[in-house]
Design brief:
single chain; 482 residues; alpha/beta; Rossmann fold; Serine Threonine Protein Phosphatase 5, Tetratricopeptide repeat; DNA Cyclobutane Dipyrimidine Photolyase, subunit A, domain 3; 3 domains; five-stranded parallel β-sheet; 5 strands; globular
Length: 482
């Protein structure tokens, strides 16, 4: 039988992979292909942290395929040209893949599918990334959901997880030419800044399964209470980068959680709260599917009038974790060191950038895109717009997170700040989240010298809050006058 080509993209796993399962079920050899795409207009290049993850995830996928008798074929170029070259080399009569939802990717895939069909090659695509396709869940008027809560209710009512697809036990590979992953510029060099990422993560399907199992064995039952606690390593599943690269699918998580509830191992309330976070991922992909410029343009065009500031020094201080507000700085340093940040802290640092510093949300989205191992084109953009107030179902403009009270409330014992801002380790709890409010004698005893060992605040909270509210008010007034 002629071989089938499985074109891997954001689905780097063997289990519950519809495209791979279809190719194996068809019989005959299977060519497992990953393309480092070039020449596709509009595709956003991965950031540095995501490239690091991709490198390790592809290594893991290749090991898994080899264990089943197959191999991962690596090629560089425009995917259309790569696929047709591979078809000519091998006589393949079928190409399958799991869908992507960004506009350039969708156009590319549609063009390739049409060209393959014209050439007499079977082309099939599947949903291997989401619970439901973005266009499947519609409002009563036939449109897409723009508010999360009714979307979440509708998803719960409509979604039924399909039967699980086991990882193939045997894959008959094909001996074709492949590039070397080591030759791809994915792992950082000169310098190699990835030591913190390497210590924090185990990319790959096995790492994803292990992380899910650990979370469901106990921490999930405290999720509703602990999910806002950045000082607790167990307060989050930390599955986001594994989902981003498709090392685990949302359906697998959904089934596992529901099975735990049915067996009495998982309480229903925290399970519901946890699955709502998976639903936010779905909701974000719906927004991206119908608003392809979500990472660049305001979802709410009224915010095009927003008087954002330009302040390179302030942006740099935020990026480096040198704002003088400990919970903000701790989050930004955690991000730089591990490629990840706790979700509560993501909201705090995003609010600080867009409200306290009055800098455009796109600057923050860009920084997260480069430094997050879970930089997802839908979630990253939707979440930044939610915080800035310009997005769908956005936070109200007058919600300006106070970094002092947020730190005191969610990092009550100071474990998070002391871990990532060790220069503040000896500050008493009372002043840990606002060392600039401590008497000089207290700071001296703790070894803290503002402006030397730890930065002075780059803005004063009350003044910055008022400046932000004035700017948002001005925007609303201009909107009304337009």
């Amino acid at each position: 039988m002629p071989p089938s080509i499985v074109w891997f993209r954001e689905d780097l796993r063997l289990a519950d992979n519809p495209a791979l399962a279809a190719a194996v079920a068809a019989g005959g050899p299977v060519i497992c292909l990953f393309v480092r795409e070039t020449g596709v207009e509009g595709v956003r290049p991965l950031g540095g942290a995501s490239n690091w993850w991709l490198d390790k995830s592809l290594q893991s996928l290749d090991r898994s395929l080899s264990g089943a008798g197959g191999r991962l074929v690596l090629r560089t170029g425009h995917p259309k040209a790569v696929l047709f070259d591979l078809i000519r080399e091998t006589g393949a009569k079928s190409v399958v893949w799991n869908r992507r939802y960004g506009e350039p990717e969708k156009h590319t895939d549609a063009d390739i599918k049409a060209a393959l069909k014209d050439a007499g090659v079977l082309a099939q695509s599947f949903n291997g990334r989401l619970l439901m396709e973005p266009w499947e869940l519609k409002t009563g008027s036939g449109g897409y959901y723009r508010v999360f809560t009714p979307f979440w209710r509708a998803l719960q009512a409509a979604y039924v997880a399909p039967p699980a697809l086991d990882a193939p036990k045997r894959i008959e590979g094909v001996d074709v030419e492949s590039e070397r992953l080591a030759d791809w510029p994915l792992h950082p060099s000169a310098p190699d800044w990835s030591a913190g990422l390497r210590a924090a993560w185990t990319p790959g399907e096995a790492g994803a399964k292990a992380r899910l199992l650990r979370f469901l064995e106990g921490p999930v039952n405290q999720y509703a209470e602990d999910r806002n606690r950045p000082d607790l390593d167990t307060s989050s599943s930390q599955l986001s980068p594994h989902l981003r690269f498709g090392e685990i699918g949302p359906a697998q998580i959904w089934r596992a959680v529901k099975a735990g509830v049915a067996a009495g191992r998982i309480d229903e309330r925290p399970a519901h709260v946890f699955l709502s976070e998976i639903a936010w991922r779905e909701f974000s992909n719906v927004l991206l599917s119908f608003n392809q410029q979500l990472a660049r343009k305001n979802y709410n065009s009224n915010f095009d009038r927003m008087p954002w500031r330009q302040d390179t020094a302030a942006l740099t201080a935020w990026q480096r974790g040198e704002t003088g507000y400990p919970v903000v700085d701790a989050g930004m340093r955690q991000l730089w060191h591990t490629g990840w940040m706790h979700n509560r802290v993501r909201m705090i640092v995003a609010s600080f950038l867009t409200k306290h510093l009055l800098l455009p949300w796109q600057a923050g989205e860009d920084w997260f895109w480069d430094t997050l191992v879970d930089a997802d084109p839908a979630i990253n953009a939707a979440s930044w717009q939610w915080t800035a107030g310009s997005g769908a179902d956005a936070a109200p403009y007058f919600r300006v997170f106070n970094p002092i009270t947020q730190g005191s409330k969610f990092d009550e014992t100071g474990g998070y700040v002391r871990r990532w801002c060790p220069e503040l380790a000896k500050m008493p709890d009372k002043f840990l989240h606002a060392p600039f409010e401590a008497p000089e004698s207290v700071r001296s005893k703790a070894g803290v010298i503002l402006g030397r060992t730890y930065p002075e605040p780059i803005v004063e909270h009350s003044a910055a809050r008022e400046r932000a509210l004035d700017a948002y008010k001005q925007t609303k007034e201009e909107q009304g006058a337009a």
